[in-house]
Amino acid sequence: MKNNVKLARIEHDLTQQQLADRIGVTRQTINLIEKGKYNPTLKLCLAICHMLKKTLDDLFWSEEENE
Amino acid sequence: MKNNVKLARIEHDLTQQQLADRIGVTRQTINLIEKGKYNPTLKLCLAICHMLKKTLDDLFWSEEENE
DNA sequence: GGGGTTTGTAACATATAATTGACATTAAGT
DNA sequence: ACTTAATGTCAATTATATGTTACAAACCCC
To answer: B15-43: string of b/e by CB count within 10 Å (b at 16+)?
Structure first.
């Protein structure tokens, strides 16, 4: 589950904690997503996208079939 | 949680059951997602996208902030 | 080298996505 | 009208995303 959340977060000068707070999840959740260690729900992906002014494809798309 | 899964599935001439089988989930899961009644995981969204030759933005993006 | 901030993990609890099995409804065909 | 396939939905269970609390490693700054 690779993604570009970390990069986009840093572009906005936010810590994991700040991003988590603004989205309304815990820091651990953001951390695990950034590390690719799990599989967030669509609603959470969308919340992250809106907060970081990116689309789903920007942050979460990859051509490969596998995770 | 509106999305375009149903439309894309029909373009490919698949039933909910067939799509579910190819992705490896149950028909109920596909049904509920199409009806917008829940919040699939990213991995499942990606599986649907690849099967239907669409991107995340094609099937699951909407500009609105809310679900 | 000590103190604060950020990040990476871990164990356990809770909410909910997803499965299983079953039944009702709708749509299409004959 | 009858049959069959497809869809909508429900109750009960299982798997897993997320929360909570806590602690350690890494990085700055003084």
So the answer is: ebeebbeebebeeeebeebbeeeeebbbe
Is residue A64 within 8 A of residue B43, CB to CB? The reply is: no
Q: Evaluate whether residue A66 is within a structural domain.
A: no
Per-residue pLDDT at B34 exceeds 80: yes
End-to-end CA distance of chain A: 5
Q: Is the CB of A27 under 7 A from strand C?
A: yes
Here the CATH number for the domain that contains residue A53 is 1.10.260.40
Q: From the Cβ of A26, is strand C under 7 Å away?
A: no
> Average of pLDDT values for A17-21?
97
